[in-house]
Specification:
This protein is α/β, with parallel strands linked by helices. It is about 40% helix and about 15% strand.
Length: about 450
């Protein structure tokens, strides 16, 4: 009996090791698909974790640390207590009430009737709208021109669709003091020179992240003329469309003649109503384009959260009635953020930095080339200057920002590695904590 007990105990000990060996044997083959190669790094994963590790004041990640307006919070609460239907699947391509609200609201913006069932796809945030666009409309060998700086997901999404990304940067005007994001311009000649017979689309972001540039009508018309001339699509990321300052006006490129049929316009309830965690976004275009995106959506995510869509629809219904009035949240939010923008700009200027004043969006970039610090961290010595600087700022000063070269391709990032990005869409207490860090640092220098 003792031998049997000992043998049983021995087998119990070796069984896990055999299982581990078996798993190693199975896992020895390559598991990952080739489309994941080269797109594994993500600046948000890296710097969000670093900020958390050092408990830094976070002006890096782009989300408000204040609540959405009460009317959409109330609408959400009403939705989740509104009976069993609000907790079950809704229409796969967009909750009926929401697509009708979006179509009604944006029809008067773009200047023609939008079909709620054919021309709109509701997605899990703007991120998924972009993913569906690239997967549905970009094929192997297609070239996609991305205007830099760009939100960092555009590049991997092009690559995963089998396309080739081609880059054209916005650059500061030559021979002038750059004080505003409006002083960064897109060269029509450079953009035209990148178009080849393989070019399928041009990707723009207005208001731009991280720069805050709001494209003028003349700039959009130049892009539209090239799209029409060369039969190109335009992917227009407009998640910050209601956040413009100093009289800058956001114009939808889809509203220009000949562009509705070839433009995918991407929007975000998270940015519109300061509720980024709800993850409700949408794409709008001609039904001839949206129908292909629906195929990607139905075979991946399929459906978005019903109650969140219901709440967003109430938000847009309210804004439709109040549009252009002082009571409109689309008037109140940018007015509030303009004050926060000025608060951050004044802080940066007071410590000797020169911010680039954004015309729109959540963010402000500043030139750090005049700042002298000892970046002696050996673990970062092979990284670009702004990455090293931001890591130093988090670790040594407890303030989190984002390096701007992360928004540029490798071929152009060196030109822009002396800028860092701050998010000013924060409570005043958060901005004041950041100001305190910067002032103390400045006084020690």
């Amino acid at each position: 009996m003792g031998m049997i007990s000992n043998l049983a105990a021995y087998l119990t000990l070796i069984r896990p090791s055999l299982a581990r060996s078996h798993h190693k044997l199975i896992m020895a083959r390559r598991l990952h698909a080739s489309r994941t190669i080269g797109v594994d790094k993500n600046v948000w994963v890296e710097f969000t974790q670093l900020a958390a590790d050092y408990q830094a004041v976070n002006l890096g990640q782009g989300f408000p640390d204040f609540s959405p307006p009460q009317f959409v919070q109330d609408a959400f609460c009403k939705a989740v207590s509104g009976g069993p239907q609000m907790h079950q699947y809704t229409r796969a391509f967009g909750h009926p009430r929401l697509v009708k609200s979006l179509a009604k609201f944006f029809s008067r913006i773009v200047g023609h009737e939008i079909d709620p069932l054919e021309d709109i796809l509701v997605t899990v945030g703007a991120y998924q709208a972009l993913f569906c666009a690239f997967q549905a409309l970009i094929d192997d060998g297609d070239e996609v021109i991305i205007v830099e700086p760009f939100f960092d997901c555009y590049q991997p999404m092009v690559l995963m669709a089998g396309g080739t990304a081609v880059y054209v940067p916005l650059r500061p005007k030559e021979g002038s003091t750059v004080l505003s994001s409006g002083d960064w311009v897109l060269s029509a000649e450079e953009l035209a020179s990148k178009i080849t017979p393989r070019t399928k689309a041009i990707v723009i972001n207005t208001p731009n992240n991280p720069l805050g540039k709001v494209y003028k009508v003349e700039e959009l018309q130049m892009i539209a003329d090239l799209c029409i001339k060369h039969d190109l699509l335009c992917f227009s990321d407009e998640v910050y469309e209601w956040l413009t300052y100093d009289g800058a006006k956001h114009v939808k490129i889809a509203s220009l003649p000949g562009m509705w049929e070839r433009t995918i316009t991407v929007g975000s309830a998270g940015k519109t109503f300061s509720a980024t965690g709800w993850k409700v976004g949408w794409a709008m275009s001609s039904g001839n384009l949206i129908k292909h995106m629906k195929i990607i959506h139905q075979n991946s995510v399929y459906h978005c959260a019903t109650a969140a869509q219901e709440a967003v629809s109430h938000g847009f219904d309210r804004e439709y009635e109040l549009f252009g009035t002082p009571e409109s949240y689309f008037q109140q939010l940018p007015a509030m953020l303009q004050q926060k923008r000025q608060k951050l700009a004044s802080c940066l200027q007071s410590v000797g930095l020169q911010p680039i004043m954004p015309e729109g969006g959540y963010f402000m970039i500043t030139d750090i080339s005049s700042v002298k610090v000892d970046l002696n961290d050996e673990s970062t010595k092979d990284e670009s200057y702004d990455f090293r600087f931001v890591k130093w700022l988090i670790k040594e000063k407890g303030l989190a920002t984002i390096p701007v070269s992360a928004f540029f391709s490798s071929e152009h990032s060196k030109e822009f590695d002396k800028y860092i990005r701050f998010c000013f869409v924060k409570e005043n207490s958060t901005l004041e904590a950041a100001e305190d860090i910067l002032r103390k640092w400045s006084q020690k220098e």
